[in-house]
Amino acid sequence: MTTGNHPREVEPARTRQTIAEWEQTYWMYALVEHAVSHCCDDLRLRTGEPTAPWPRADA
C-alpha cells in the first residue's frame, strides 16, 4: 500500500504524470498533423495539384 508521502513514492508519481502529459501532447500533435495532411491532400486533389511534394523520378 502506498501513502504518497514517502520520497520514493512521490517521484514515480511525478514521472508517471510527466510521461502521461508527454504522451497526450505527442498524440495530439500526431492527430493534428494527420488531419492537416489529409486536408491539404484533399485541397490539392480539388485544385488538380499533385499530392506528392515533388514529381517522381520515374514518371
Distance from first to last alpha carbon:
65 Å
Which ranges are low-confidence, i.e. pLDDT below 50, for 5 or more consecutive residues? none
User: Can you summarize the main beta sheet?
Assistant: none
Number of DSSP strands? 0
DSSP helical segment count: 1
Q: State the helical fraction.
A: 55-70%
Radius of gyration: 22 Å
Percent range for β-strand residues: under 5%
- State the shape: rod-shaped
What is the H-and-E element order?
Answer: H
The averaged pLDDT comes out at 76
Q: Which class do the helix and strand fractions yield?
A: mainly alpha
Number of domains: 1
Description:
The chain is mainly α and 59 residues long. The protein has one domain (1-46). 69% of the residues lie in helices and 0% in strands. The protein contains one helix and no strands. The mean pLDDT is 76.
Compact description:
The chain contains 1 helix and no strands.
Key words describing this protein structure:
59 residues; mainly alpha; 1 helix; 69% helix
Topology:
Layout: H1 7-47
